[in-house]
Amino acid sequence: MEGMVKQLCILLAFVSAAAWTVTADSDKQLNDEEVLDKWLGMWRYHLVSESAAWSPIPGKLSGTSSTEWILDGRFQQTSSKDDGTETREIRRYDATNNKYHKWTFNSYGSDSFWIGGWDEESSTMTWQYVDFGPGITGEIVDHFSSPGKYKTRLVMKDPKGNMLLDVRIEHVRTRKEVN
Question: Is residue 110, in this structure, part of any structural domain at all?
């Protein structure tokens, strides 16, 4: 009987330690997913594109976007519209790899996939383009200067380092909630 009580105590200690570990991991995942909350709401943005291979004539445009959680809060969707182009972004946190994923699609038929890392100290998400062939590199940097403002820099280059796209965007939240 005494041996059984001892085994039960050891088992209970093991189960408690395992539960504590799972809870700690779940809390970390929740905190990592909360990073994506920074994008929630309705936004107005102003975009400036510099001269580059994919946009030889510099330009400016403005638009609106809305970001909300979808699919039981497992993914986040941003819908944006500007002068004739509609874009969708889907984001999620990948707890297995401790990275963020972003897929983009637009009404021209373009799509892309990005893997991101969050830097809490600088309030910056840096996304790296995942190339599926031609050797293109890309980086998106989203820097949050305050809860309702962030700036984006998007740069894409060909395999020789030539600039394909150079874009700067300023975002200002107009509403925290989406209809």
Answer: yes
Cα 135-136-142 angle, rounded to 5 deg? 145
12 domain residue, yes or no: no
Pairwise CA distance, residues 170 & 150, whole Å: 6
pLDDT of residue 89: 97
Q: How confident is the model at residue 11 (pLDDT cuts 50, 70, 90)?
A: very low
Query: What is the CATH classification number for the domain harbouring 170?
Result: 2.40.128.20
> What is the pTM assigned to this prediction?
0.78
Domain count, the chain: 1
Taking only the tens place, the pLDDT of each residue in 130-145 is 988 889 999 999 999 9
Q: Taken in order 45, 66, 76, 148, is the CA torsion positive or negative?
A: positive
* Strand partners for 173: 43
- Domain housing 47: 32-175
Model confidence at 88: pLDDT above 80: yes
Q: Is residue 25 part of a domain?
A: no
What's the confidence (pLDDT) of residue 28? 45
Q: From CA 66, how far away is CA 77, in angstroms rounded?
A: 8
